[in-house]
Structures are given as C-alpha cells and as structure tokens.
Design goal:
The complex is a heterodimer. By secondary structure, chain A is α+β, with helices and mostly antiparallel strands. Chain A has helices at 39-49, 83-96, 121-126, 178-188, and strands at 15-16, 23-26, 31-37, 61-64, 67-73, 76-81, 102-106, 111-117, 143-148, 151-157, 168-174. In chain A, the strands form two sheets. Chain A has a six-stranded antiparallel beta sheet. The longest helix of chain A has 14 residues, at 83-96. Chain A is globular. Chain B has one helix at 36-43, and strands at residues 3-6, 10-13, 18-22, 52-58, 66-72, 78-83, 114-117, 123-126. Classes of the chains: A alpha+beta, B mainly beta. At the A-B interface, strand 9 of A face strand 2 of B. Bound molecules: zinc ion (ZN). Zinc ion is lined by residues 6, 8-9, 59, 62-63, 65 of chain B.
Chain lengths: 207, 129
C-alpha cells in the first residue's frame, strides 16, 4: 500500500536566504520513537546485553548507529533518524529492555521536524526564545525544550555537523503547532534574507 | 517575570513554567464517612502565606517534570528548589519592611488590615505590629 500520509508542512516550500545565511525546511522523512523507562534500570540492562546507552545528563543527546537519542526528561527519550536506522535500533532496544517495564512508541505522526541552518540560525532563533543560545552555552548535541514564539518545541543542535560549517538546528514540534512555528521562523528570518513565503500565514492551505 | 531553576534543566525563564499551587497537601485516606467539610478542606482550602511558601511548579515547556519551590511571596525571592518526594530544606526569610505594617496574611492592601472595634463603638483599622 502506498504511504498516503501527508506531512504537517507539505504545503510549504523550503526557504533559503540568497547567500546561504539561513535555510528553513521540513524534514518529513525523519522517523521518531519515544521511550519512557527508568534510566538506571534501562542503562544497566542495556550495558549487559547491548552496549547501548541512554544519555542521563539532562538536555544532552547521543548519536549511535545513525540515530540521535535525545534526553527529554529524567525517564524520557526521543529517538530520531532515518527510518531504517531507527527501526534497527528499536529492535535492539526492544530486546534489551524486554525484562524491564517500559514504553516504546512511534511518535512520528504526532510531531513535525523543522530544520533551521546557516550562520544566522542562532540569531534567528534568539528572536523567538528565552533560551541562552550563545555558541559557548548551547553546544553541538544539546537539547532543550522551550517556548518558540508561543509554541512549545524541543530544540536540538545536531552534534554530527562539521564545526567548520554552520550549525544545523532541528525543532521537534507538535503537529498542530508546526505551521505556526514555521511562520514565526520564516518571519524571524526575513531580516537575514529569507524570501517571502507562499502561501503566507493565515491563508487557506489545503483544498 | 523571574528565572526559576528547574532541578533538571537549570535556570530557565518563568514563561516555561506553570505553577501548581501549594505543595505538600496530601490526599486524606479515603473513608466513606468523610464529610463535605473534610473534603473541602483537602480540595479547596489553601494557606495564603505572606513570606515563606512551598509551592509546586511544572516545567511545562521543558522537561515537563513537577518539582517544589520555596518562595517568599512578598519579594518573589526563590529560596530553594527540590524534587518531588524530597524534604523541604530548612530556610528562613524575612518580610520586607513596610511603612504601615500590613497584616501577616493576604495582599497587604487596606482590606487586609485588621479591623478592630474601638471602645466608643466606631470601627477603625489598626496597624498590626
Ligand atoms: Zn526542566
């Protein structure tokens, strides 16, 4: 059966500033799994069986086998990556945690992923949030839930990016907030050269 | 606006948090003969402390965990932050000096001043010292 899912921002086209200062795009192909489990018990079990580990330091992430494991709370993590990689890791996790009370859910349709990159990406985000995004404070691999404009979202700075190049941020947001967040990001990027978007906010998006 | 220190995420802006009211109110052991008054005491009645106050906060936009805060309600100074289930740390705080010595409860406006009946039958407000 063909995949007939429509991503939350399918009606938006990626926006790019002329000089590459900033670009905004949805990442509809990203697979996501949410895990709830006791951290200590899980890491003990995973150490014994798999050599896999969940990051226990708040607001950090770990990159393993093509999957980003994001800390969301003391007993909550998000797995983010290409479909095949996430599926492979999910199977290994499921085996490792089989003896432990846990919950592993597909949250791909619940969330949208927006990527914001470029050398002005930090500045554009600073206009929308109270988080400290100074390069010395918010570092590659860091994760933070906060308000962006009026929407709650999780911000992640990919630790896989080349430090010589410009940072790439991912914003993981509830599907129903995705269009609002896209619009405030697009507006925040206007001063850095993001083109005016079509359709604009407030228009009827779908027939 | 003030900055609150989440026990997990560290200092964050108040806009990320929501307040859950007074802390350390435990649900009474359920009994079939509990009166409406007893239920009301648990459900509705809260102290309205001026000064040191223990309250619950939720890091709603961040890690979404509940935790406890000891706050001075008249200065908004946060004296301690501790996780659910932990014992409140021993802290003390004072009240700001006020020119007319408002009552120890309430907002400190005129309505909260203690009403006393004077000996001659007229009603006056009295400063509590
Ligand atoms: Zn937090």
């Amino acid at each position: 059966m063909p995949d007939r899912r429509i991503s939350a921002l399918a009606h938006r086209t990626p926006l790019q500033a002329g000089d590459g200062a900033l670009s905004l795009a949805e990442r509809p192909q990203v697979a996501m799994r949410g895990l709830r489990v006791d951290a200590k018990a899980a890491n003990r079990a995973l150490k014994k069986t798999k050599g896999l580990a969940l990051p226990e330091t708040p607001n950090t992430s770990r990159h393993t086998e093509g999957v980003h494991i994001l800390w969301l709370g003391p007993d909550e993590w998000l797995f983010l990556g290409e479909v095949d990689a996430v599926h492979a890791l999910r199977d290994r996790l499921g085996d490792g945690l089989a003896q432990i009370h846990h919950q592993l859910l597909d949250v791909r349709d619940q969330n949208a992923v927006i990527a914001l990159s470029g050398k002005r990406a930090r500045e554009a985000l600073m206009k929308l949030t109270t988080l400290d995004l100074h390069p010395g404070v918010f570092r590659p691999g860091d994760v933070a839930g906060s308000l962006f404009g009026r929407a709650t979202a999780t911000l992640h700075l990919l630790e896989t990016y080349d430090p010589e190049r410009d940072p790439e941020f991912l914003l993981i947001v509830r599907r129903s907030y995705a269009d609002y967040l896209w619009c405030v990001l697009a507006r925040a990027g206007r001063e850095f050269g993001l083109p005016d978007q079509t359709p604009k906010a407030g228009e009827i998006m779908r027939p | 606006m003030f900055v609150i220190e989440c026990p997990w995420c560290g200092p964050r802006d108040q806009s990320e948090f929501s307040c859950g009211g007074e802390a350390h109110i435990s649900r009474p052991a359920e009994r079939s003969d509990m009166s409406d008054e007893e239920w009301a005491e648990f459900v509705f009645m809260r102290t309205n402390a001026k000064g040191l106050f223990a309250e619950r906060w939720n890091h709603a936009a961040g890690c979404r965990r509940w935790f406890n805060v000891l706050r001075n309600t008249s200065t908004d100074e946060i004296l301690a932050v501790y996780r659910m289930g932990e014992t409140p740390p021993d802290v003390s705080t004072g009240l700001p000096a006020t020119p007319c010595g408002e009552a120890e409860i309430g907002s400190g406006n005129d309505a909260a001043k203690v009403m006393v009946e004077a000996a001659d039958g007229t009603t006056n407000t009295r400063d509590t010292v």
